Amino acid sequence: MLWPKAVQERVKTGTDRELLRSYPYRSACPSTVWTELTESASEELFFAGYTNYFFWTQVPHFADTIRHKAESGCRVRFLVGDPDGDVTRQREEIEDVALAVSTRIKITLENLGRLGTLENVETRFSAPLDAINHVSLSVFRFDSEALVTPHLARLVGHDSPLLHLRKQDSGGMFDRFAEHTEELWSRAVPQQQ
Hints:
It is a single chain. The chain is α+β, with helices and mostly antiparallel strands. The chain has helices at about 5-10, 30-40, 55-60, 60-70, 85-95, 100-115, 130-135, 175-185; strands spanning about 20-25, 45-50, 75-80, 120-125, 135-140, 145-150, 160-165, 190. The chain contains eight helices and eight strands. It has an eight-stranded mixed β-sheet with strand order 1-7-6-5-2-3-4-8, sandwiched between helices. The radius of gyration is 17 Å and the shape is globular.
């Protein structure tokens, strides 16, 4: 046996290699991770959280970074929930917090509006039939890395766990989450500015 059993149990193999780090809470992921991933992406940024509001308050110079990325040819997409949708209202009842889901979505829309029209920036609302699937899973893609938050029953996003993934091979966890967001995007409703 080339590798002792103790080493084999600690070395990541196969799709396990895609999991770089896990956090018991999204809020436990340092803001530097979000900043570095956003700044290092050159081809694609896809923010598929239901509200995406925390980027504007927790990632330094986020609006300037988005503008710079778009102007340099990076595709930037925001998939958010409909602030007036049924799932949004239901989620507000479940969370029962002062900063309501619709308000958090409107924070994102307001900040995107301040950016003006940028050629490589797109915003869509999840389709009504997909909203329940969108609200329960946030996927944030930065080229070949992703931060994924599966939302736990009655918790606000920042209280749910987070997985940091890096694509290794086709068909792994990264691709599974990427395919999920692409499916949601394909049926999403373009947001008019």
